[in-house]
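Question: what's this shape?

___
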Amino acid sequence: MRNQLSLLILVRHGKSLWNVENRFTGWTDISLSNDGIKEAEIAALEILDNKINIDNAYSSIFNRAIKTGEIILNKSNHEFVKLEKDWRLNERHYGDLQGLNKDETAAKFGKEKVFQWRRSFKTKPPLLEKKDQQKQLENPLFKNIPKSRIPLGESLEETVNRVKEFCNEILFNKLEEEKNILIAAHGNSIRALIKIIKNKSEKETEKLEIQTGKPIIFKYKNKVFTKFK
């Protein structure tokens, strides 16, 4: 018995190829960079150093998060743990900004507007155009997502709402079972998770900085989350 104590390990995926190119990624499926692979390996070493046993692991449906989760499991001696994918852990959908360079977009629309699109809790980015919407609906990666749930662009608030579904259906139940949980996800879905578990305000959530490849570990006991260290 663990005296009703569970651990939640949150890891933003290592640097992707589009992180390196400073592009809006969102729901685009982009691979890890070489640096991102190294970051995931270092995250695994931190879990090993802290002698953390992982019982269950989850990621979004995107390659960069899946590979991060798999590397962490394999390099921390948890290769027997199945990594389960849940689309509700996906990155925030950046709509028509996806693929654009962030600096070039700021030069075109203004830094203040782009900052609002990136960090405002309630503001949506420019939505996908119809031709891109159709491509998205036909993408086999999204085949298990109800078509009505596939967005054209999301606010951070909408990202929080779908992440909350994952928490209520899966995460909180597993933690109550005294399971240690690894989640490999994205900057905004991890912001959403921290808002939910720590009851952060909208403004506090907007300001959260989430490093790539750096584990954020919480202890869970009696329905309360506290920092591991």
Q: What stands out?
A: The chain has nine helices and six strands. The longest strand covers residues 6-12. The mean pLDDT is 95. The first helix runs from residue 17 to 20.
